[in-house]
Amino acid sequence: FLRIHPYKGVKMFLEHICAQDEIQKVFLSDAHAYSTGVSYYLYSAVPESKRVLEVSPVMLRKARKEEREAMSMREAQTKDSVALVEFFAFLEKQIKNGAQYDEISALTKLRKYRSEQEHYRGESFEAISAFGSNGAIVHYTPTQKTAKKITNKSLYLLDSGGQYLDGTTDVTRTLHFGTPTQFQIEAYTRVLQGVIDLATLIFPWGMRDIFVDIIARRPLYDSGLDYGHGTGHGIGLYLNVHEGPTLLSMHEGDSSQIERRTVFFR
């Protein structure tokens, strides 16, 4: 059964149950590339002899979505797509008409479009709104000092998401409101090829994520290109935008942990 406690009372509850002889193991979420793992505050409440730093059965059950949950998440993605299409259409028209929008003011407008969707509850993470060279900064966050004006002279990268009662979204899109260079066209096309290859890949159950990740990178490798971050991750249902243990990444890390981490979709 499931017990829910206020966060302030969790440590006291852990200390209480760990003092009982019949409680022999306590699963604590292990850290990996998309999760910092359990906090030291809670980690310290469990005696070393009872700590199990592995992927917990609870996490595995959360990662496997029921058909009703999958349908609900698809509905959230559809609503979020509507908001994004409306936003990009608006922004493109404004840029062509000479309106002044920068990385921050664009996000303000995007929030308005998302808020008009049913069951919207806010952003799922701090969005990456990056124009030109700022798009090369992994996990960039615009500030008043760094925010660039969005024009038709370079690429605009938007990595954002919303929390809806029926699902969580995390969407990255790259656009050019003018005429891209040949190199920009090639790089964009090779990324698209990798996405299609990954989406259509059929692989055996239990395949390690590192072997799947490379499929998305192969078109870039053919041209001597690469990207310095992961390819994909699990996502929650009105929960964490990064939900383990599913992770597509080339960063192998601890081999023992990689052996435990498998891909849970087909």
CATH architecture call of the largest domain: Alpha-Beta Complex
Query: What is the H level of CATH, i.e. the homologous superfamily of the largest domain?
Result: Creatinase/methionine aminopeptidase superfamily
What CATH first level of the largest domain would be assigned? Alpha Beta
Structural class: alpha+beta
Estimate the mean pLDDT confidence.
89
Percent strand equals: 5-15%
What is the terminal-to-terminal distance?
29 Å
Strand-and-helix sequence, N→C? HEHEHHHEEEEEEHHEEH
* Number of separate domains: 2
Side by side, the strands of the main sheet go 3-6-7
The geometry reads as globular
- CATH names the topology of the largest domain as Creatine Amidinohydrolase
Keywords: Aminopeptidase, Hydrolase, Manganese, Metal-binding, Protease
Domain Peptidase M24: 73-262
GO cellular component, one term: cytoplasm
Family: Belongs to the peptidase M24B family.
Written account of the structure:
By secondary structure, the protein is an alpha+beta fold. The protein folds into two domains: 7-54, no CATH class; 63-248, Creatine Amidinohydrolase (Alpha-Beta Complex), CATH 3.90.230.10. The protein has eight helices and ten strands. A three-stranded antiparallel sheet has the order 3-6-7. Strands 4-5-8 form a three-stranded antiparallel sheet, with helices on one face. Helix 6 runs antiparallel to helix 7.
What are the key terms here?
single chain, 266 residues, alpha+beta, Creatine Amidinohydrolase, 2 domains, three-stranded antiparallel sheet, 10 strands, disordered C terminus, Creatinase/aminopeptidase-like, metal-binding
